[in-house]
Structure formats: structure tokens, C-alpha cells
Write a structure and sequence with these properties.
Layout: E1 5-8, E2 11-14, H1 15-19, H2 26-29, E3 40-43, H3 46-59, H4 65-74, E4 77-80, E5 83-89, E6 93-94, E7 97-100, E8 103-106, H5 107-113, H6 123-127, E9 130-134, E10 138-142, H7 149-158, H8 162-165, H9 167-174, H10 176-186
Parallel strand pairs: 2-10
Antiparallel strand pairs: 1-2, 3-5, 4-5, 5-6, 7-8, 9-10
Length: 188
């Protein structure tokens, strides 16, 4: 594409999301998106906080004791600068991280995949490496981290673009019709 952004139904998409090949390689990154050094975890919405509060008793069963202790003492979310986010533990892992064979994974998603809850995880996590910024409307952009270099390497092999890698999350946020319209524009 020869433009920096494409607009589909009042949503701006940075063309990196449409052009960059990307496929997570958890065996190499070890779930780095869930354990990036930060005082805060993932962005969440008020509705997501309400849903997580509802399913929290089930989700806790999937979490390490230290994470459960943090949630019980301080809650699982925080508001900073008008933004709602999950808490992080030791300025590193999201409080919902669980570990399997040394790989950080989402305890909420694990409970979802096992059919114990009906919420997969916050949409900001589901969309990663796509981030939504708001500049008078939504802007989808590729959030670049050095920890994701293995995903870029694997993407060159799979030939899967970010927009396709994140298809389920994109359709969850904007709908199938929007996704299909975006693909039509990309393929022109």
C-alpha cells in the first residue's frame, strides 16, 4: 500500500497492520506480551471489569498464589490518568498470567478454553499486537516490541498478515462485515 492509513467506516487503520506479516511464536517469546515490564497491565473497559468481577472466582483457580494474593489485597484493575488497566505484579506480569512450561498465558483465556467462563479475555489482549488509539475516533496501529521479533520472523514463513492473525479479535470488536470490507480494500 502506498498510504500510511486506510479508513474503513470511520476507523483508521495504519497500513502496517495490513502489510506486516506476524505469527506469534510462544516457544520463543514465552508470552512476553503478558509480562512486559510496566507498572500497569492491559487496557480494559468498564464493561470488561464488570464481566471479570463476575467470573473472577472461577478465574482465580487458574492463577498462581502470588497473583491471587495481589488481586485479593489490591483488586485486579487500576485507573491511572483516566485509563482503566489490569494490575501488574512486580511491575512485570499481568495479574491474570498463569504459566505453562515456562510460557506466560492468560488465566482468563485458559478458563474460557476449558468452557468454565464465557469471556475470552480483554479485547486489548485479544487484539495484540494491534492497539487501538483514539484520535477523534479509533485508530488501529501495530504495537512494536523487540520481544515480538520471533513473531515477525515466523510471519515471514507463514505469510500471515497482522490483520489476519488477529481476525477473531478484530471481528469481535468491529464485526465480520467490517473485517470483510477491510480485506476487500486491502486486496484491491
Amino acid at each position: 500500500m502506498d498510504r500510511d492509513f486506510v479508513e474503513i467506516d470511520n476507523v483508521l487503520i495504519n497500513t502496517e497492520v495490513l502489510d506486516t506479516e506476524f505469527t506469534c511464536d510462544l516457544s520463543k517469546c514465552k508470552g512476553a506480551c503478558c509480562t512486559m515490564e510496566s507498572e500497569y497491565g492491559a487496557p480494559v473497559t468498564k464493561e470488561e471489569i464488570e464481566k471479570i468481577e463476575e467470573i473472577l472466582p472461577v478465574v482465580k483457580k487458574y492463577l498462581p498464589k502470588e497473583h491471587i494474593r495481589e488481586i485479593e489485597q489490591n483488586g485486579f484493575w487500576i485507573e491511572k490518568y483516566g485509563e482503566l488497566m489490569t494490575r501488574s505484579l512486580n511491575n512485570r506480569a499481568c495479574v491474570f498470567v498463569t504459566y505453562e512450561d515456562g510460557i506466560a498465558k492468560c488465566g482468563i483465556e485458559k478458563a474460557y478454553k476449558e468452557g468454565k467462563v464465557d469471556f475470552i479475555k480483554p479485547v486489548s489482549c485479544h487484539l495484540f499486537p494491534i492497539r487501538i488509539s483514539n484520535f477523534g475516533g479509533p485508530v488501529l496501529r501495530f504495537e512494536k516490541y523487540s520481544e515480538c521479533v520471533p513473531a515477525l520472523d515466523k510471519g515471514k514463513k507463514t505469510k500471515i498478515k497482522i490483520i489476519d492473525f488477529c481476525r477473531d479479535a478484530v471481528e469481535r470488536e468491529y464485526g465480520k462485515e467490517w473485517f470483510d470490507k477491510t480485506k476487500e480494500v486491502v486486496n484491491q
